[in-house]
Every structure is written in structure tokens, then in C-alpha cells.
Amino acid sequence: xxxxxxxxxxxxxxxxxxxxxxxxxxxxxxxxxxxxxxxxxxxxxxxxxxxxxxxxxxxxxxxxxxxxxxxxxxxxxxxxxxxxxxxxxxxxxxxxxxxxxxxxxxxxxxxxxxxxxxxxxxxxxxxxxxxxxxxxxxxxxxxxxxxxxxxxxxxxxxxxxxxxxxxxxxxxxxxxxxxxxxxxxxxxxxxxxxxxxxxxxxxxxxxxxxxxxxxxxxxxxxxxxxxxxxxxxxxxxxxxxxxxxxxxxxxxxxxxxxxxxxxxxxxxxxxxxxxxxxxxxxxxxxxxxxxxxxxx
Length: 296
Ligand SMILES: C[S@@+](CC[C@H](N)C(=O)[O-])C[C@H]1O[C@@H](n2cnc3c(N)ncnc32)[C@H](O)[C@@H]1O
Ligand SMILES: [Zn+2]
Ligand SMILES: [Zn+2]
Ligand SMILES: [Zn+2]
Hints:
Layout: E1 13-15, E2 25-26, E3 31-32, E4 69-70, E5 73-74, E6 87-88, E7 113-117, E8 123-127, E9 136-139, E10 142-145, H1 147-155, E11 166-171, E12 177-188, E13 195-196, E14 202-208, E15 215-220, E16 231-232, H2 244-253, H3 277-280, E17 283-284, E18 289-290
Parallel strand pairs: 1-7, 2-12, 3-10, 6-14, 13-16
Antiparallel strand pairs: 4-5, 7-8, 9-15, 10-12, 11-12, 14-15, 17-18
The structure holds S-adenosylmethionine and zinc ion (3 copies).
S-adenosylmethionine (SAM) binds near residues 263 and 264.
Subcellular location: Chromosome; Nucleus
Enzyme class: transferase
Keywords: Chromatin regulator, Chromosome, Metal-binding, Methyltransferase, Nucleus, S-adenosyl-L-methionine, Transferase, Zinc
């Protein structure tokens, strides 16, 4: 069985062969949620005018901060910074060729992935191939929500439900925070099977191609062996996505939150899955406004 229903450029196998993960609509790309949130299919980023086969940082308008990738691997040098350097790939409006080195995640899956039944975490995702550090693995794609809709959906979940909704906060160098809310519960891609780990082997990086809505791309944070389970840190701590306000809120409400136990098995496991209190309490970190959103 192909978990991606033939919609990715490589089939995604399922193990055990005779079991099927619970149904959802497969979409390799983000989709707009009905009646809320921005439309991720809108082309809104201008292209470069490079005539070369591959773009160079000194010339290309898509590369204002230097090279994004080297040999198809993400340039991790900037990850030491405490703000996100936006990554723009060359897009449909660019004049460069299809083989431009600044086109990586738009080429889709390059490693064979398998959705598999774990012992204690429900379904998970593993690689069937060795993955070198820095390589693109898959996207986390789903419905794009606005803040209000994300809060409403989070608040209607029961404590035992699997949570697929993710809030990504990009700290820009001018002090602004950009928020993106993605929900692959009903419509999404293979990324929805990625479990959390306190010692993850993937890192999530927002990447923009045609739209201002970022694609959430997962890259190998170290070399990964064939058959290893793939995971990332749901709190995004590696890239400082979690603002201080949210960290304080976690401490403040820590007792009351029905945190789920973490079964990542890492030596430094914190014992619980990270929890995004901002969506539960309806507190918009980007705008600094606080509102109480009722349950639907
Ligand atoms: C995005 S889903 C991951 C896929 C999910 N395991 C499934 O079966 O569809 C997130 C949910 O998986 C489970 N999960 C993920 N990581 C876990 C971990 N380290 N320990 C325990 N449960 C985990 C939790 O129920 C969590 O709400
Ligand atoms: Zn280019
Ligand atoms: Zn260019
Ligand atoms: Zn853990």
C-alpha cells in the first residue's frame, strides 16, 4: 500500500502490510481551510531574473542572505542566530533553470519513507534509506488556519486525541513575529505521522517558494541510518520558535495542563510532550492580544 495514494513522487510504504492508518485526505501541499486563514496556493513572491542555470548569492534576488543549500543540503551555519533567516527557494516566476541549486524541497520526496506502527506512540514514520545530515526529508503539510480557528480546533480536542495542529513562530530580525498554523488532521501529508522526540533527528525549517505562507520543511539534523524512526522536537526548541512568553505560560499552567507522557526513550527525555498553551488559552503571541475563545 502507498500511504501517499500515488500523490508523492515516491511511494510511502505501510507496515504492517495488512494494517491501514486511520483515514485522512492525502495532500502533498498545504491547502486553504474553508472560510479562514490565508490561501497557500496564491502566488505572491516575485521571481529572480537570473539567466544562469543555477543562481548565485551575489547576484540572485532570491538569495539575499547567502546560499540556502550546498549539494542539496541545508546550510545550517545560520542556525546559531537567535532569529530566523527567511529561506526563499527559486519559484515559478524565476528565470533560472529547473536544475538551480536553490530548488530543493520543491523537488519532493527523495528518500523512501515508511509509515509504521510503533509500540507506544501510535503510528510513526521511518526512513528505509540512509539520510546524510542536512538533506530534506519531507514537509509538514496540512490545512492553513488563522489563529482563531487554530484555537477553536485545539479546544475541541479531548486530552486523549492525537494532536496534529502546529503553530510555527518565526522571530524576524526586526523584532516581528510571524505565525503560521497548520492542521493535517483531516487533510495532510506524510509529515503528520512524525512523532516527537526530546533527542530528535530532524529539524523543522520554514521555507517559502511561491507563497508567503511558508512550507514547513524537515531536514536531517544529523546522519540518519536506514530503518531509524524520524522525529522532531514539537516545541521547536532547536530553532527557538518558543517565545519566552509561552515558556512562562507553560511553567505557570504546567500543573493544570494535562500533559501527555513522552515515550521517545531518549536519555534526556523531559517526560512529557511539549504543549502549546497559547492555542489552548487563546493568547495571540504575535499581536500580544489575549482573548478567551469559547469551546464550540
Ligand atoms: C502528529 S501526531 C504523530 C502521529 C501519531 N502517532 C499517529 O498515530 O497518527 C502526534 C500525536 O502522536 C503521539 N505522540 C507523538 N510523539 C509521541 C511521544 N514521543 N510519546 C508519546 N506519544 C507521542 C501523541 O498522541 C501526539 O498527540
Ligand atoms: Zn534559481
Ligand atoms: Zn536567481
Ligand atoms: Zn521524550
